[in-house]
Amino acid sequence: MSNPVGIVLVSHSAELAAGLRLLVEQIGSDTVPLATAGGTDDGRIGTSYDLVLAAIQQADRGAGVVVLPDLGSSVLTARTVMEDHPRTDVTIVDAPFVEGAVAAVVTAASGADLQTVVIAAKEARNVLKL
After folding, report:
1. pLDDT truncated to tens, each residue of the chain (130 aa)?
2. d(CA 30, CA 17)
3. Is 12 a catalytic residue?
4. Among 7, 23, 80, 126, which has the highest number of CB atoms less than 10 A from its own CB?
């Protein structure tokens, strides 16, 4: 199998990003490159440009990277990083943080391409819980 699409989890909280990473590692596969960018550089609640950029580089194995932010400034920070470092193979996805991450990782683990992983994450918004 070729390199899978990488996934970056961007959150205001390092603990939230790390917890979601643990969840998706157990559900998806240990073959999917996962990286987190949670909190600020000094460990506070917030979002760090440098951590987002480093996470994208860490998750990149050549098949593309899906960036999943939680909300608010994490979206703005991820967008700014992507505007400053434009790449056609890195995509920020408007998806629910947890459900989108699960869908993205499971799909990436199957060997799907970047666009298919993006679609899976977006479609997670429509999955009913009850």
Report:
1. 589 999 999 999 999 999 999 999 988 678 899 999 999 999 899 999 999 999 999 999 999 999 999 999 999 999 999 999 999 999 999 999 999 999 999 999 999 999 999 999 999 999 888 8
2. 17
3. yes
4. 7
Handedness of CA 48, 68, 34, 54 (dihedral sign): negative
- Cα distance between the two ends of the chain: 36
Strand order in the sheet with 6-11: 34-38, 6-11, 65-69, 90-92
Cβ atoms 92, 67 nearer than 8 A:
yes
Among 6, 7, 9, 12, the active-site one is 12
Nearest to 11 by CA among 43, 50, 39, 35: 39
State both tokens at 91.
Answer: 């995509």
